[in-house]
């Protein structure tokens, strides 16, 4: 099986960038070697699918819009009614989900080769992301582990809050390079460190 190459290419330049005189505001990095699966439940099977996701991943999820769970390198979050991103660093995630979720319960789509995951962390992460997306990133409006689906211009992005200062952004691979550059421009004002 062919290994995916980073779509960031020459735009991925490690080191400190922007106005870092007052310290580093954010640290963006690409997360690699993840399995990214979209699970969509039929309207009458949502509770059963959520139970199946929990048995396949160990991440129990309630049927509440945007609710998610994070445990180390694995996570799950809802981003639309009956639609969930399930993410893990294990290559057998899709097969485990297919064993637990039959076609009568919903659909499973492997997005691993179609998405790039960019993690942004740091004390200014909410502020930088607010420059790009028209949603409230404060913790009371966007709690830890919750997810959102949104747009930056025409670039669709799924976002999950990982902790107080960390967010994972899932973007289409074809837009990843452009989005990475845009994120860098947004972070220049507060200084950023690429790792």
Strand order, sheet with most strands: 2-8-11-10-9
Give me the strand/helix succession: EEEHEEEHEEHEEEHE
**Straight-line N-to-C gap:** 27 Å
Helix content: 10-25%
Mean pLDDT: 94
The chain-level structural class is: alpha+beta
Provide structural commentary:
The chain has 195 residues and is an alpha+beta fold. The protein is built from 4 helices and 12 strands, in the order βββαβββαββαβββαβ. It has helices spanning 46-57, 93-100, 125-132, 173-187, and strands at 15-17, 27-31, 35-41, 68-71, 74-80, 83-88, 106-110, 115-121, 147-152, 155-163, 166-172, 192-194. It has a 5-stranded antiparallel beta sheet with strand order 2-8-11-10-9, covered by helices on one side. α1 packs across α2 (93-100). It is globular, with a radius of gyration of 17 Å.
Provide a short characterization of the protein structure:
This protein has 195 residues and is an alpha+beta fold.
Primary descriptors:
195 residues, alpha+beta, 5-stranded antiparallel β-sheet, 22% helix, 4 helices
How are the secondary structure elements laid out?
Blueprint: E1 15-17, E2 27-31, E3 35-41, H1 46-57, E4 68-71, E5 74-80, E6 83-88, H2 93-100, E7 106-110, E8 115-121, H3 125-132, E9 147-152, E10 155-163, E11 166-172, H4 173-187, E12 192-194
Antiparallel strand pairs: 1-12, 2-8, 3-6, 3-7, 4-5, 5-6, 8-11, 9-10, 10-11
Helix pairs in contact: 1-2
């Amino acid at each position: 099986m062919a290994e995916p190459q980073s779509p960031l290419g020459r735009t991925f330049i490690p080191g400190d960038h922007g106005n870092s005189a007052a310290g580093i505001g954010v640290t963006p990095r690409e997360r690699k070697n993840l399995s990214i699966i979209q699970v969509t439940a039929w309207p009458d099977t949502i509770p059963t699918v959520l139970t199946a996701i929990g048995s396949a991943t160990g991440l129990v999820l309630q049927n509440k819009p945007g609710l998610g769970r994070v445990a180390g390198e694995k996570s799950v979050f809802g981003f639309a009614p009956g639609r969930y991103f399930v993410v893990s660093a294990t290559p057998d995630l899709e097969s485990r989900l297919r064993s637990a979720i039959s076609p009568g319960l919903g659909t499973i789509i492997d997005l691993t080769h179609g998405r790039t995951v960019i993690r942004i962390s740091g004390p200014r992460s909410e502020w930088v992301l607010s420059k790009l997306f028209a949603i409230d990133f404060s913790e009371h409006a966007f709690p830890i582990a919750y997810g959102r689906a949104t747009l930056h211009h025409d670039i669709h992005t799924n976002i999950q809050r990982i902790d107080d200062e960390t967010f994972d952004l899932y973007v289409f691979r074809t837009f990843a390079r452009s989005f990475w550059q845009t994120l860098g421009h947004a972070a220049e004002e507060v200084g950023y460190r690429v790792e």
